[in-house]
Amino acid sequence: MKTNPPVEKNEYMDVQFVDLTHEGAGVAKIDGFPIFVPNALPDEKAQIKITRVKKGYAFGRLMEIKEKSLHRQEAPCPVYKQCGGCQLQHLTYAGQLAFKEKQVRDVLERIGKLDMSRVTVHPTLGMDEPWRYRNKAQVPLGEREGALIAGFYQQRTHEIINMDACLIQHEKNDQAVQAIKDICNQFGLRAYEEARHKGWFRHIMVRYGVNTGEMMIVFITKTNDFPHKKAILEKIIERFPAVKSIVQNVNPKRTNVIFGDETNVLWGEEYIYDTIGDIRFAISARSFYQVNPEQTKVLYDKALEYAELTGKETVIDAYCGIGTISLFLAKKAEKVYGVEIVPEAIEDAKRNAELNNITNAEFAAGEAEAVIPNWYEQGIKADTIVVDPPRKGCDEALLRTILDMKPKRVVYVSCNPGTLARDLRVLEDGGYETQEVQPVDMFPHTMHVECVARLTLKS
Ligand code: SAH
């Protein structure tokens, strides 16, 4: 790479794209110097304009495509470019799946320094029908000409754009958001206004249990009053018989964080139910629950397969949330211990175990990196450990405990290939071998990819 950037701001140039970043931007190289261009695809030739130059890389804008990729398609969503929620709609679905597989392989090699002749990365497991998959909508409200609008923040702004349909959202959620917006408009309710910290209605969340047909609606508001409550709730219930729970969450703070601390049930139950496979889950307004139910089943089945349980094992499920993976594992193991940092989620996990008459699962609230070493000291030794950490990956102390405890198998479920690769390196250095990695497409049309990795202790 040259020390002086070989390109200048505002320069026009013809380039050929060779790669795609994990954020979905095309990568072209001039004498090895990378230029990132949103919307461009590998193999395309195009004219670009340089928009920003840094020491080791530059950004450009796509001006004219001269040779199109075979994998380019017209994005089906009319607000694709403004929204930014999806990054890959201009790439065919087959192209997306191949991109995600390659990304996982590249990162395991580059960051994890894994010997890729030994590790199998399988083709990404995709969906037959990769649209309308989300079971949860979380939509900000604003106003235009005195009326409520609901949609999304325009990319890199705080401006809300009204949206009538989101193609990755379940139709029921879309319909509910539209109806609530209309009903609240009839009663003249006001949206929260970020700049002046005034107004009332901040966000609306709708969650739909696709396997039970139960719906929860959450009003997130600045204050805990509710103008025209009775009339509004009646209209919602009349229009949507699927609604089993209506909840108000109050967030009085000046913040980007969506939820506040106060949650009140306005009508119906505190929970809705959904099933994954043959297990039933109670889900409350604040619980983490995977957003793509169809692919969640695919992911959990793979994790279960990699755990290779015979019924005699003790298993630890770290970062267990509301106990979803734990309860899957419990049916095939002797004993499962789940740990999770959010106390409410652990309450849900215990209730979910009861709900399914599962008696061999125990749950504890706390940091996985603190609770598991404690268990180990008390003599609890797992044959298999499953981890499913957030994007930042596993804490080092947890990885060290795994290396001390030496379970025969580790199953690593990850939503971030970068931290997965980093953590696999630590486990490999400590005596584990990564055998296979299965990417699963949990979030079609976005850059995100979920993986399950199977590791065994070398004898
Ligand atoms: N396995 C669950 C949840 C995975 S999401 C499922 O599939 O539904 C990751 C979870 O890790 C979240 O519930 C989050 O609250 C939890 N978490 C984050 N940091 C943690 C820590 N240090 N120790 C334990 N749990 C943690």
TrEMBL record:
A single Gene Ontology biological process assigned to it is: rRNA base methylation
Which residues hold S-adenosyl-L-methionine? Answer: 290, 319, 340, 388
Taxonomically, which superkingdom?
Bacteria
Q: Which UniProt keywords apply?
A: 4Fe-4S, Iron, Iron-sulfur, Metal-binding, Methyltransferase, S-adenosyl-L-methionine, Transferase
Keyword 4Fe-4S attached: yes
The positions making up the signal sequence are none
Domain named TRAM: residues: 6-64
Similarity annotation: Belongs to the class I-like SAM-binding methyltransferase superfamily. RNA M5U methyltransferase family.
Q: What is this protein called?
A: RNA methyltransferase
Question: What organism is the protein native to?
Answer: Bacillus gobiensis
